[in-house]
Amino acid sequence: MVDLQARSSSGTVQPPLSQAVGYVIVVIVGLVIAFAMMLVTRFLKQTAGEDNSRTEMFMTANRSVRRGLTASAVISSWLWTTALLGSSFVGYDYGLSGPFWFAAGCSPMIVFFALLGISCKRKIPEAHTSLEVVRIRYGRAAHIVYMALCLVNNIFACANMLLGAAAVVSAMTGMHVIAATFLLPLGVTIYTFVGGIKATFLTDYFHTAIILIIACYFSIKAFTCEEIGSIEGLYNLVATAAQHHPVSGNPQGSYLTMTSKGGILFGILHICSNFGLVIMDTSYFIKAFAAGPSAVVPGYTIGGIAYFAIPWALGTIMSSVAVGLESHPSFPTYPRRMTSSEVSGGLVLPYAAMAIAGKGGAAAVLLMTFMAVTSTLSAQVIAVSSILSFDVYREYFNRNATDRQIIRASHCGVIFFAAFSAGFSTMLHYVGVNLGWTLYMLGVVTCPGVFPMAFTILWRRQSKPAAILAPVMGFATGIAVWLGTAHHFAGSVSVAATGEILPCVYGTVASACSPILYSVVITAIRPQNYDWTEFSKEKLALEKLDANLTTVHHEHKETASSVPSSDAGDRLEDGPEAQALLEAKDLKRWGRIAAFWSIATFLGHWVIWPLPMYGSKYVFERKFFAAWVVVSIIWLWLTMLVAIFYPVIDGGFQQISETYRVWRSGAGAQQKQTVDDSSSPSLSEAAPEGPKGEGQH
């Protein structure tokens, strides 16, 4: 009762920063980044030939992105505001198990996607979106069903990001939450409009670097501030807090345990919903298609394992800080506890940052949130624009669309979806929905297509009726179970009732698992025996693909045609067929590696490590807590090093030097041409007279 009264106590927290700061970061910083990316895009076009007026460059970066940049982009793709804010608030609600289950609910499916990505590379290398794969195998009816599921996934994912980010911007600066909702996508729209997927990769790298530097700063600042002082000091504060407001369902009501009923329910919910968010998100397929064949598996595997540390370390430290300092005068809500709306609104992280670093902490969280939401929004925007351009415009309106027409459709898609997602998030805000509600219920709407989509790529026997009916029936099952259990537990169907953990768990599991049963049963009636070579019969790429599955430019074709016939004969003798055979064997090898790491990551992060700790009912002692925190911090710092330096080491130096050399040679040639042009009249005048044409050699 004391706990409930404390939570409902009144008292507002004054924004530590002015509205001007909010507008500067949201608008000015966003426009500066967008302008910088426009300059980079133009520079790369002039020096490296990366022409974004070509669809293959705009949508797939010529299918040649390296491992390091792929890994960084994968980490960035999951650096949602939900990950930063949500991992802290589930840690506040459930204790140390919350951030761990948040991380364990992300890394296995990121690594698993490497298997799907390399399978697509092997079977249908010219694809731009996952929906093209569905259409070729099952036809237009299935294409429309999965298009609707993917768009629903993208819409709710963007709403989830914008709701949390706008709430933080408003709380930190006093900016109106609706102004933040509409202004956050502004810079994203501009640089994605101009630069396409390559701009998304580059900004992912920049944003990820800043976010991880700030996260590492908090991992040190938390133990050097006067109120805490050390890991032991934080342990004592959290242990004391459990005595005043224990966690229901935890042994001794402690925050310092992995045995948490609420925590494991969230873990089940989170891993199911995240499979939907990954597999039904076209942006993951686009990044896989954009990566080079040898970059897909290492990029997604390294990125997925490295990502684990971010929600685990940041959520563990900052939620512990919030729990421990909540009764201290340095905490923004003192003397009251945080209200339920503040917790589910994602304010645990910013309030903890303010407690240990004051206004500087608030500014750091604001910048971190801005970088996270713009980075992930760019991937969502390019994903939806690809659906609208390739799967709607090219398929249903203009089968012979040119580069220019598809790019124009993509540009329209970028603008439309950015505006629509902001409007949809505003609607959710006014009906009382916040970050916590969308985080819990996401899986209900994102999971129905997970296994039918995976079967489309991996299982040749899934039939067309199964592929069409299974996700539709799964969606209906999930919605029915979600609303039915909400009514059962709360006695009514309302925003509050449908946002509780139990109805969302039941609804998400039903939505994710029932399509397996539906697909298998329907397929058993009349199974298909699909020939994977059918994929290669449909030409999807607007430019020719080389043997290594990267784009061959037109100028490269001209160069190839100018090779002497004897050399060409030798090349044919070597055989493009032999080279293709070697390439196919290499892709199969990467497929086996991806399958191994998918299983190993799931068993390690979700089974072998956490489940015995859940069953042990062990409450962390001081030394074990210290080891737990230290390992998470080390992992976090290694993730920062991977995200920042791996792309530079893996071809970054080489590309930068080559680009600089081309730019210098181009500048030198231009300067020489200018000198020649200015001096040519005097040379003509000085030339000796002679027959017409002499002296002009």
TrEMBL record:
GO terms for cellular component: plasma membrane. Its main location: membrane. Residues 676-689 have a biased composition (Low complexity). One of its GO terms (molecular function) is urea transmembrane transporter activity. It is a multi-pass membrane protein. Coiled coil: none annotated. Residues 671-697 are annotated as: Disordered. The chain crosses the membrane at residues 20-44, 65-86, 98-118, 144-169, 175-194, 264-285, 305-325, 346-371, 377-393, 414-431, 437-459, 466-485, 505-525, 593-612, 624-649. Keywords: Membrane, Transmembrane, Transmembrane helix, Transport. It is found in: Membrane. Belongs to the sodium:solute symporter (SSF) (TC 2.A.21) family. This is Urea active transporter.
